[in-house]
Description:
Blueprint: H1 4-8, H2 22-67, H3 73-83, E1 92-96, H4 101-112, E2 116-121, H5 129-140, E3 145-148, H6 154-163, E4 168-171, H7 185-205, E5 211-217, H8 241-260, E6 264-269, E7 272-273, H9 282-291, E8 295-300, E9 308-309, E10 312-313, H10 314-327, E11 344-349, E12 355-356, H11 357-368, E13 373-378, H12 393-399, H13 407-422
Parallel strand pairs: 1-2, 1-4, 2-3, 4-5, 5-6, 6-11, 7-10, 8-13
Antiparallel strand pairs: 9-12
Bound molecules: the ligand O=C(O)[C@H]1O[C@H](OP(=O)(O)OP(=O)(O)OC[C@H]2O[C@@H](n3ccc(=O)[nH]c3=O)[C@H](O)[C@@H]2O)[C@H](O)[C@@H](O)[C@H]1O.
Amino acid sequence: xxxxxxxxxxxxxxxxxxxxxxxxxxxxxxxxxxxxxxxxxxxxxxxxxxxxxxxxxxxxxxxxxxxxxxxxxxxxxxxxxxxxxxxxxxxxxxxxxxxxxxxxxxxxxxxxxxxxxxxxxxxxxxxxxxxxxxxxxxxxxxxxxxxxxxxxxxxxxxxxxxxxxxxxxxxxxxxxxxxxxxxxxxxxxxxxxxxxxxxxxxxxxxxxxxxxxxxxxxxxxxxxxxxxxxxxxxxxxxxxxxxxxxxxxxxxxxxxxxxxxxxxxxxxxxxxxxxxxxxxxxxxxxxxxxxxxxxxxxxxxxxxxxxxxxxxxxxxxxxxxxxxxxxxxxxxxxxxxxxxxxxxxxxxxxxxxxxxxxxxxxxxxxxxxxxxxxxxxxxxxxxxxxxxxxxxxxxxxxxxxxxxxxxxxxxxxxxxxxxxxxxxxxxxx
Length: 429
Ligand SMILES: O=C(O)[C@H]1O[C@H](OP(=O)(O)OP(=O)(O)OC[C@H]2O[C@@H](n3ccc(=O)[nH]c3=O)[C@H](O)[C@@H]2O)[C@H](O)[C@@H](O)[C@H]1O
């Protein structure tokens, strides 16, 4: 039987009629033989590379499958336990972003009053994931499970809705941060737009659609100059991509409300701060730098005007979130079909008393008993707005929202937590 090489390059001398050309033929043949060897080697290498690549992809999917943090009977039981309701007419709430700052606080508050809570978080590395893991441990000690997974994972979301009939979704997962949007714009689209749509698709298809309360942002007011900011003010001039994705979220949720009957409440948070906060935010990163003796950069507006924020303490925001859940009406649709008009609301959750950034730094200096090395620079064109100031009368009227913690008091609580959490380490880790 001819070898493969022979089949490809027949070497039967009889095929060459001219005997005189025998030596030339041999050279030719040698040349062909070496070309064919090279060709075969090339084929062999291509085959080897192809099998290596398919093996790699098999291993990757295998690893993903085996290291998957969700699935299985034990996991389903954990989800059910976490969603267990322990009060009359209580809720079962899916909290997205549960390992985040606001998400962890809201989850604890709901659990403490007897609601069932299942958390979802992708534990991304936008800021130190060890802080998110620490929040997860805290929640776990209160029997709250945080499932590790991304909002865009429709299979996972579908599975959670198969296991639990959620009455509410508290959607707090997002790519946060105003200025980071210039560095990583796509992460905002991934979480704040694509992730939101994935979640809404699952919610609208549920047989009993949950009511949805979700985090919008004060940043949607953008270049608005009406003071204080009211929900009816213009929000069509965002100053950052972050703001634009939150504004898009308000439009997207409106669509799902209109077409599918989902009950929607959007909350415009105003620079929320406090214990277990976000290390990327100014009050937090300033604290770390001040303790480490490093300079801090304070932005200033045109003509050296100080920037100001309506800093809102976490406990007040949590009350606002819970008030929103408690007053949310049921969604009207089921299985992707609307059965009647559903509630659509938007509320400011601010503090109604803006404080300038240098004043905030002065408060930190007093609490930390350390002088900051301040470096003032003109506000770069990075998406920041000069000031925020919430009109909260709508939320007050609807569910009695009334913030009670001023910045001085709230920062004191934050500093106490910070020093206890990081100890002498001052957040160097
Ligand atoms: O309300 C919101 O919807 C948003 O609030 C928050 O954004 P901001 O109000 O911009 O908070 P934050 O970054 O703490 O900067 C505070 C002030 O410090 C100034 N600032 C900041 C950094 C710095 O190095 N120097 C400085 O002066 C800065 O110019 C600003 O004046 C959330 O991060 C955001 O996710 C979103 O939820």
